[in-house]
Amino acid sequence: MVRVAIIGAGPSGITAIAAFQELVSKGLECPEVVVYERQGEIGGLWNYNWRTGTDVDGFGCHASMYKHLWSNGPKECLEFPDYSFEQHYGEATCSYPPRLALRDYIMGYAKHSQVNHDWIRFNTYVKNVVFDEESKKFTITAVDNSEQEQQESSDEFDHVIVSTGHFSVPVMPEFAGLHDYAGLVMHSHDFRAAESYKDQTVVVVGKSYSAEDLASQLYKYGAKKVIITHRNKDDSGNWQPTGFHWSEGIEERALMASMDGHNITFGDGSTEKVDAVILCTGYKHWFPFLDKAIKLTCKNTMWLPELNMSIQSKQNPNLYFLSMQDQFYTYNMFAAMAYYARDLIMGKLTTDQPMTDVDGKPWADKDFITLYNNMKTDADNYGLQGKYTECLMKATGYGTQAICPKKFVEGINKTFDDWEELKHHNIMDYRDHAHASIITGTMSPKPTKTNNWLNNKWEDDIQFYKNMHKHQ
Ligand code: FAD
Ligand code: NAP
């Protein structure tokens, strides 16, 4: 029997299990599937973990989530076509769920898709994957940490799907003076709770999602001052701010240049006494378990030219990577990718065969690369991932019983347009707005004033989320 290994049971791995489970549910031939997951449960990054540094299993901590994180994009843009939020919660809910509510939705999707827990080897860390050219098999060596004594074992597979995520191993650049800086230095990977920085002056390095969200969180939970320092430049090479309208108490400055004790001097020559520096400098793709011959080496880009159709290894066609691109689209794209990987494994599709969009236009790998090479704006980025998702859905049939893929991605792209506009209007309150579900057409409610993202510090569990638009 054909054997398939899935490494990682976060949102991407869950969609891969669901794709194979669909074969079982339809009474079709399904390979033997073994899932390796180093945590004790499914959910990936959405499982909050207070630990930093080394995890209980002795390997580097996977978790990068903080306690009071809320979705930074509308839920309507990540909704699974075959499982709406309305179906999950039984009623319309607000557009920007807190972490626990989003996690609950992912768990609901897993249950709805009958994700088979018997396939999953929990608490099991994949240490090594090698491919044998003669037998054409992969050997996976993994450590089971569920007993006090670690158990190492090896198994052979015909296909391997890697869904281990790529937001866990931090990029930690050197900055002049950091070595001698007297305050706390850390990466956003280790950030767990903003309340620890109450009344402090904190520097946040970077200008992307972690930088903007940590700055907002620090302000929300009472930091005295937050300085976002970054290297954003205009076309003439001059430093320029991001253009977001921050609350008083948050400001942007040119990238820090030197440090002396607690004092930091910025690129504009200004100096500030600072309690902590948080590097929001992103993450690197990290596959220590893959043998050199099959290792994926890539950057965090919206399309991965290193893979066929952003999925299949160029070194080995039986090795697949899910969701390794940088992301505007998330869960619905992850699922469509998982179904595509499944159909490659089942021999129903090949990556050298172009996909087609709903209008019948062919989309080969090179066409996506041309689109990728010409991207200039955020709209180009989500346009690319939308077209990709549309083609994947059409090729695999994933979600097409619920909605036409073209209509689906057009709706999502329009919602991203609205979200961008709201964020640029006021980055401190965009989460208080509402969008309509593309699947059900239902307009989401808005939270009440007391439950606005900025006003409400401590309530963010599932029950709160279900009621945050209701006056008590
Ligand atoms: P992960 O969630 O990282 O899951 C990977 C799984 O693989 C984990 O369960 C891990 O334990 C397992 N694993 C890793 N290595 C091994 C190994 N060697 N052996 C066995 N198992 C292994 N996306 C959104 O859509 N909305 C958001 O609001 C949002 N917020 C985010 C906030 C932060 C701080 C970060 C870092 C990311 C955020 N994301 C968000 C993006 C996030 O990456 C995705 O939502 C999603 O978690 C990706 O799923 P994944 O399964 O690909 O990876
Ligand atoms: P990212 O998007 O890769 O951004 C990395 C940032 O680091 C960029 O601004 C980059 O600047 C900067 N950087 C890297 N090296 C630098 C250097 N040497 N000097 C100065 N700046 C440097 O990573 P991220 O912001 O951590 O986001 C990762 C993922 O987490 C995203 O998917 C995001 O959506 C998610 N996230 C979500 C939330 C939420 O609210 N739900 C919160 C946090 C993160 P340049 O652009 O100049 O290279």
* Number of spatially distinct domains: 2
Mean pLDDT: 97
Compute the number of strand runs: 20
The low-pLDDT segments are none
Bound molecules: flavin-adenine dinucleotide, NADP nicotinamide-adenine-dinucleotide phosphate
What do we call the CATH homologous superfamily of the largest domain? FAD/NAD(P)-binding domain
Oligomer: single chain
What CATH calls the topology of the largest domain is FAD/NAD(P)-binding domain
C-alpha Rg, in Å? 23 Å
Structure in words:
- With 472 residues, the protein is an alpha/beta fold.
- It has 2 domains: 3-168 and 283-416, FAD/NAD(P)-binding domain, CATH 3.50.50.60; 179-279, FAD/NAD(P)-binding domain (3-Layer(bba) Sandwich), CATH 3.50.50.
- The protein is built from 10 helices and 20 strands.
- The chain has helices at 11-25, 75-78, 85-89, 99-112, 209-220, 331-345, 365-373, 378-396, 405-425, 462-467; strands spanning 3-7, 32-36, 120-121, 124-132, 137-144, 151-157, 159-162, 184-187, 201-205, 225-230, 250-254, 256-260, 263-266, 271-273, 276-279, 307-308, 312-313, 319-321, 355-356, 362-363.
- The strands form 6 sheets. It has a 5-stranded parallel beta sheet, covered by helices on one side. It has a 5-stranded parallel beta sheet with strand order 8-15-9-10-11, with helices on one face. Strands 4-5-6 form a 3-stranded antiparallel beta sheet, with no helix packed on it.
- A hairpin with a 6-residue loop joins strand 5 and strand 6 (151-157).
- Helix 1 crosses helix 6 (331-345) and helix 8 packs antiparallel against helix 9.
- The radius of gyration is 23 Å and the shape is globular.
- The relative contact order is 0.15.
- Bound molecules: flavin-adenine dinucleotide and NADP nicotinamide-adenine-dinucleotide phosphate.
- The site of flavin-adenine dinucleotide (FAD) has 32 residues, from helix 1 and strand 4.
